[in-house]
Design a protein that fits this description.
The protein is an alpha/beta fold. About 35% of the residues lie in helices and about 10% in strands. Strands 7-8-9-10-11-12-13-14 form an eight-stranded parallel beta barrel, surrounded by seven helices. The protein has a three-stranded antiparallel β-sheet with strand order 1-2-3. The termini are far apart. Its main location: mitochondrion.
Length: about 500
């Protein structure tokens, strides 16, 4: 047992001990490698850091990332000096808003979750989740594109029973939708990505695990039900041995699909996030817990992206095929040319995605790219191709959006922010409500469209002639506009006159 006096003597950058869950650790050598910087650790030097550590780290993070000689022993909890947490006025106001949020049964659509999240999330979390690149034209276009596609419903069909279940990469799904990967779930809720895992298991929906999750990969898999299908989103590490170990571990744990992100050789400039500037201890993702060279002064996105390999290229695809038997999907394809190269490379599918508008601004929406890509793939083999899936994500807020994408040839649709805001606002129950909303909308829209199952969704049921008209009389989306937060310019500091 280590005395509190002994521990308190190690409260500097030269010798920094902290207490987590009643155990003492020497983190001196880790200070400069911490993704969120050393300042937050030094705040708890010589003291109990459990309260700050627990909400944003997997239970074994400190054990796994410090060598055994840095595990110093136990402390008598009665002698520990705990940091008194001072609650700011802004935090008091945020907690008051959480207490007054609308009851879950008053949430009618996915826009509602976003409206609630905007008000109750900490500023840093909202900036990270909602931000997009440069002038944020593409994130808005992702939403607007769906409003330029119109339905052509069929009538007098017996739609007493409609079925929207499907299979995605051979895995059964109760929705033609999967949960697309979004990073750092614990910025918005203490349980982070586990909210998605648990709700998805109950409702037969497939979750894509993000590389940059707040929860550890194994923690997420352990929370899943037996035989619950999971996919993995992969940012490729500069150190390919790390990538290989991660991919093969995922396959051993039963992951059913590998989605390799290919549109992020460098993360885009997300100015809302960058204006938050300095990040704290919740900036880092689990894969970075012991890395150095992490940028800490340009927002959360920059802090978590230092390991991503910009040299990733087509020549790496055979290597990925050699290290795993999981279906490989390239996430972030935008052109027919690259779709054909993916097909020829022998992968099992692509995601038409612009990274939620967070990468190359003024790139086209996945929905718009879908038409050109489907047309060229029809010339390269059977269609639909049972061995090559085409997924779409970005801007989806309604089941009607999903049906439009499916009618135009998508295999399934990914939703990221919609489910993210659901659990940030209401936890696991919010995600379950989001599934129910989508199910109710699917039932209604399929009946009104005259489609009794997903196979009956055909291109003739939609009019996409206006999709490529980027300027014109698109009806205003009031719900989206009400939650969209415009960019702001640099501001003068307040000064005394």
């Amino acid at each position: 047992m280590l005395s509190t006096q002994t521990i308190s003597e190690h409260a500097s950058k030269d010798s920094c001990w902290i207490i987590v869950h009643g155990k003492v650790y020497d983190v001196t050598g880790f200070l400069d490698e911490h993704p969120g910087g050393s300042k937050i650790i030094l705040k708890y030097a010589g003291k109990d850091a459990t309260e700050a550590y627990e909400p944003i780290h997997p239970p074994n993070a400190i054990i796994d990332n410090l060598s055994t000689e840095k595990h110093l022993g136990d402390v008598d909890p009665s002698t520990v000096t705990k940091v008194v947490k001072v609650i700011s006025e802004a935090e008091k106001q945020r907690q008051a808003l959480i207490a007054k949020r609308p009851p879950l049964d008053e949430i009618l659509n996915l826009h509602d979750f976003e409206a609630v999240a905007k008000l109750i999330l900490p500023d840093k979390a909202w900036a990270y989740y909602s931000s997009a690149s440069d002038d944020e034209i593409t994130i808005r276009e992702n939403r607007a594109a769906y409003q330029r596609v119109w339905f052509r419903p069929r009538i007098l069909r017996d739609v007493t029973v409609v079925d929207w279940s499907t299979t995605i990469l051979g895995q059964k799904s109760n929705l033609p939708v999967y949960i697309s990967a979004t990073a750092l779930g614990k910025l918005g809720h203490p349980d982070g990505e586990l909210n998605l895992t648990r709700a998805a298991g109950k409702h037969g929906v497939i979750q894509m695990i993000p590389t940059l999750a707040s929860c550890s990969f194994d923690e997420i898999v352990d929370a899943a039900l037996p035989n619950q299908p999971l996919f993995l989103q992969l940012y490729v590490n500069r150190d390919r041995t790390i990538t290989k170990r991660y991919v093969q571990h995922a396959e051993k744990r039963g992951v059913k699909g590998l989605f390799i992100t290919v549109d992020a050789p460098q993360l885009g400039r997300r100015e809302k996030d960058m204006r938050m500037k300095f990040v704290g201890d919740d900036a880092g993702a689990k894969v970075q817990e012991n890395m150095s060279g992490v940028k800490k002064d340009e927002g959360v996105a920059r802090a978590i992206s230092s390991f991503i390999d910009p040299s990733l290229s087509w020549k790496d695809i055979p290597w990925f095929r050699s290290i795993t038997n999981m279906p490989i999907i390239l996430k972030g394809v935008s052109t027919p040319e690259d779709a054909v190269l993916a097909l020829e490379a022998g992968v099992q599918g692509i995601v038409l995605s612009n990274h939620g508008g967070r990468q190359l601004d003024t790139s086209r929406s996945g929905l718009e790219n879908l038409i050109d890509i489907v047309n060229v793939l029809k010339t390269r083999g059977p269609w639909p191709n049972p061995n090559f899936s085409v997924f779409v994500d970005g801007g989806v807020r309604r089941a009607s959006d999903v049906l439009k994408a499916l009618a135009l040839g998508a295999s399934a649709v990914g939703i990221g922010r919609g489910f993210l805001y659901a659990f940030c606002s209401y936890g696991e129950a919010g995600v379950e409500k989001a599934f129910k909303i989508l199910g109710d909308e699917l039932e209604m829209n399929m009946r009104l469209l005259g489609a009794r199952n997903l196979k009956e969704l055909v291109p003739e049921m939609v009019d996409a002639n206006a999709l490529q008209a980027h300027v014109g009389a698109t009806p205003r989306d009031n719900l989206f506009d009400s939650t969209y937060q415009p960019l702001r310019l640099a501001e003068f500091k307040a000064a005394k006159l």
